[in-house]
Amino acid sequence: MPSLTASEFVAKWSDSTRTERAASQEHFIDLCRMLGFPTPNEGDATGDWYAFEKGAEKADGGDGFADVWKRGHFAWEYKGKKKDLDAAYKQLLQYRESLENPPLLVVCDLDRFVVRTNFTGTATLRYEFSLADIAKNPREPLRILRAVMGEPEALRPVTTRAEITEQAARDDDYTFGVLHSRVHELWARGMGTQLREVESGFRYTPTTTFETFPFPRPTTQQREAIAAASRELNEQREGWLNPPGVPEAELRTRTLTNLYNACPTWLAQAHERLDRAVLDAYGWPHDISNEEILTRLLALNLEREAVNIEGSRPRKSGQGTQQRTRNRRAGREQLPLVADPKEKYGREEESD
């Protein structure tokens, strides 16, 4: 049974001015008392599956510690009050693979709580609340915290990243066009996952290809030009895939794979028109090289990420990949920081 009420927890920690180092473990223990869950030392005396200061290797090398970790549940990083929780989240991203990729990633500054879902193959949802929210209406914050502690599946998103990506591509002709352009293909090949056999190609991975891609910020005229070229490409492809009066046996051979392997002149020309429209929206020359496209895309990604971190605002509970998709269409994308895709893309080109 809980031995600390929500109002007592809020009163104690609202007044606290202690540092992260001095307060974090006591704060988490009080959370356990309030929610009715065992503390790390009560639940796992060996620290094998539930622990404070869980050692972890960083993705970019070196060692670190997650402030609290529970296998199959969460990794939790604390910061002092009013400190940068985006920085805390980036720390968790460095640790998560070493920590068995927990389904929930939590950051907290003793006042604010931000819970992000980390389920494989699903959209990322973000839940955010503060001590003031717990005091005003504790039901939803306590539901989320209890799920973190004991039932992570209760926070699993119902929409997968692949479904969001597919829907975004189909929602409008402009987005469909950008995602079928040479510009996006280069980024996708650089940031996607190489399949085991090189000849099998690469896997389009939404988290590293779609969510990181810096869409252009076109004028109305440029957007319409991309949409028109996109419609033309789609209509011509559909006409080839499903022509009237063709026997069923032949229709079965009319696949996109066979079409692109043959690459008839009309298809190449349709893609050229689309590519020119997309390049115009970026303000780049039509004869730009593949390497230069990747260089400029990376620069855009880094530039927009810097703006996002510097000018970030707290987001509403549950605002995840769906909101990023809407932001892209309005020219306000919030991009994850990425490594240079030219290195990966270049290696794949050499192995082909």
Descriptive notes:
This protein is of the alpha+beta class and 352 residues long. It has two domains: 6-155, tt1808, chain A (Alpha-Beta Complex), CATH 3.90.1570; 161-351, no CATH class. It is built from 16 helices and eight strands. Strands 1-2-3-4-5-6 form a six-stranded mixed β-sheet, with helices on both faces. Strands 7-8 form a two-stranded antiparallel sheet. It is elongated, with a radius of gyration of 24 Å.
Overall mean pLDDT stands at: 82
How would you describe the shape? elongated
Total count of helical runs of at least 4 residues: 16
Instruction: Please describe the biggest sheet, giving its number of strands, its sense, and whether it closes into a barrel.
Output: 6 strands, mixed
Strand order of the largest sheet: 1-2-3-4-5-6
What share of the residues does DSSP label as strand, in percent? 5-15%
- By helix and strand content, what is the structural category? alpha+beta
Number of structural units classed as domains: 2
Which key phrases capture this entry?
single chain; 352 residues; tt1808, chain A; two-stranded antiparallel ribbon; 16 helices
